[in-house]
Every structure is written in structure tokens, then in C-alpha cells.
Amino acid sequence: MTHAFTRRDVFGQAGLGLGTFALASLLEASTSASATGPATTRAAAPASVPAPAPAVPATHFPAKAKRIISLFMHGGPSQLDLFDHKPGLRERHGQELPTSVRGDQRLTGMTSGQTSFPVTSSRFSFSRRGQSGAWVSELLPQTARIVDELCIVPSMHTEAINHDPAVTLLQTGHQLPGRPSFGAWASYGLGSENSSLPAFVVLLSRGSAARPADPLYARLWGSGFLPSGHQGVALRPGRDPVLYLSNSPGMDRASRRDQLDVIAAMNRRQAEIQRDPEIAARILQYEMAFRMQSSVPDLVDLRDETQATLDAYGPSVSEPGTFARHCLLARRMAESGIRFIQLYHRGWDQHYNLPSDLRLQCRDVDQPAAALIRDLRQRGLLDDTLVVWGGEFGRTTYSQGKLEPANYGRDHHGRCFTIWLAGGGIRPGVVHGQTDEFCYNVVRDPVHVHDLNATLLHLLGIDHTKLTYRSQGRDFRLTDVHGSVVHDILA
Length: 491
Known about the structure:
491 residues; two-stranded antiparallel ribbon
């Protein structure tokens, strides 16, 4: 009987040709830069020989940053209590927030039932610091000392009002799951400078505030529809930083090499039959894992760090899994040529007990983040390393629940929040943007999430409108169809 071709058959056969092309590109012995911008594939060495250092492709224009370190405060730090000083709120403390200020803002389920929205001023003192005169809270004394290295942006805004869509938007450019993360896009466009380490590494730490465990899904550092080799590699605290990386008892390195050669040959044969580019990605990942068996233990071994360096990051640097230790590891990763280094610090979702919990969270991150900036500067790395600090949104001016004399909480707030950036082509010692007297709406120089991501890519030498990947018949990009580079914050 003659088989009638369906639409699925037609598209499937067309996909085989694309898969063959992708496989050939991935398995070539060398790669050259695209004439129009960043290369989109990486070379693989033959399975039986060590891989050469990958060629760094030409960028769309000269890059000011070679790598990014993202210090992500998961949960939404309170901008009113840290950077966006609003002394006028003290006179309005406890009064109702004018409806003209709140307007038609969509509220979360935590405060949508409230009948009262009392203005809540910060309990913490602020002071102008550095030559820039930027306001910094008493909770961040070490950050205040490096304020002239920072570009503070209090005019960030996002339309997302709940954690998962807000984090997903910031990390992937879309509120719905399924898109590649920023680190995956950076790996796809630029690759790694070190053939023995992945281009994208993730470190997670838990905050000191006693908060419920905030979910951080692996898709936030996933590759989405990009080849899976571009996904982030999460390092764990302890003796085995990467799951399933160590050899089993009785398996030596030579035996593992022989095993991988056989597996690679089988995978290549399977690729010829199925023409699935993910098989090529699997071959590359096996090879990377083999090289990481030697490179990762050296990377996380801090015995060659001086005591002065360890002391600079704070006493918790000796504890595996802490933010302090991860900041030091981030500096070592920057030295090693890792392209995108993502640090998550949990516990910033202060719907209640904000005064006590925020103090604990700031104690976790203040000294290590400042030490990281100083360390990068001292080693000549800050000029081409871009550091970004912030969360997925800010907190409300009004109190969530009952406003007590010594205690309050704040709900999610996307209309304005604060981040800071340093190094890598950023203008130091400036404050870009302004919010209204209630710290509720942006009144000058708004910066959307897409604008931020467009700017970060620009500093990497990438035109955000040209770094695209075709999936399901459409060209996708990190900034989707939005985003403008914020030229005013560039050095």
C-alpha cells in the first residue's frame, strides 16, 4: 500500500537535513567566526585527543566585557530599605497611600484583599557615600565603601508581579518557561575561553533569613530550544561539585578514556542513522565532562588563596555553599575564562519580619559582594568583567498586612526596583534614573528588563537584535521583539 505523506512527515524529512548540517558543524575540527557576528556553533575535537582551546568568535562590535557575573538576590530586595532613599515617607508613615499613586496596578494575591495600604518608611538610616554621593543604607556598609565603582539603577521596572514569571522574564526574556537563559545565549553566541570548563556555571546559596524554601528550577539556567550543550552547569557544595562527574570505584582515567572513545563511536554511528543534532551535543558533553574531572577540582580548591584574600570575603568563606565562598569561586571562574557565572542567593521575599530578615540577608551578601569587586579590580579583571547585582522586582511602599511600630513586611512591586552594575564598560559612580516621592513609579529614565538584557549583550559585543535562533519556524532572541541599549550608563 502506498504511504500518504502527512504534514508531520514533510517537516520531519526537512528536519533531517537541518540535523545533518548541525551535526557536521558541531563535529568539525575547527570553527571560524561568522562574518556577520558571533559564531553559533562550537568545534569538537576527535574523541581520542584533547580538545584545543575554542576560538573566540568575532563579535558584532568590540566587546567591553568578556564575561558576566550575575549576583541574583532571589525574592526581590527592598529598594526602599537599601538604595532608594525616600526621607519624605517618614512624615507620611502610617498614612494611606494615595489612590492616584497606586492607580490601576495589578495586586498580588497576598494584598489584593487588603482594605488599607499604609505608607511604610524605612526603619534604616541612609547616608551619602563616595564622590558620587549615592545614598546607601546602613545595612550595606561594605557596599557603601565601593559605591564609586557602581552604577546604581533605581528605575528598573517589570510587568511581572510574582516570583516565577518575574525571574523567568529576567533570566530568559519571557514570563513563560521554555526559552533559553541568558547564560545559554552567551554560551551560544560566544562560547568559552577555556576548553576544560563549561561556558556557563551556576552556584546556589541559601540566605540566613528563616524563609520558606523558594523554588529555583533548573530551567532558569537551561538551554531551552538551543542545543543542550549551552545549558548551565550547577556546582554543588561538598566533595563532588558536579553530579556523576567522578569515576566509579575501580575505574581509572585511562579506562574512562577508552570507554568514552567507544561510546563516541557508537553515538556517531547513531547520529548517521537518526540525524539528531542532540546526539552531537551529547558527544561534546561527554568530552567536557572528561576534561572537567581534572579542571573542576582545581577550580574549587581554595588552598592556593592567601589568608588575606579569604579574610576579605568574610568568615563564612570557609563554609561550602555560602554566598561568600561562591563570590570567591566566581572570581576564580572569571580568571579561568568562564563566560557567564550565575550566583543565586535565596531568602529575599520579605512579606513579613522585613526589618530583622533583611538585616540577616544583607549580612550574608554585603562583604562578599564588595570583596569581589575589590578583588577583581586588584587583579586587573574588573575592566572586562561585568558584575550585576539585583533581584526580579522590588517591594511595595505600603505594608503588607498590619503595620506594627517595630515590624512590617512589603509585597512584590514591579513598577520600580534597584540594581547595580560594575566593571565591564559600565560608567562608575553614577545613579541612573529616578522614582517618585513614594518610590512607587519611575519618573525619569525607566529601564525595562529587556533594556537591561540588551545592554548586557551590547557590553559583550553583541547586537541583541542579531543574536537569534530559529525554532518552530521563527527567529527567537533573548530580548524577543523589545529592548533598547541604555547608552547613558556605558563608559
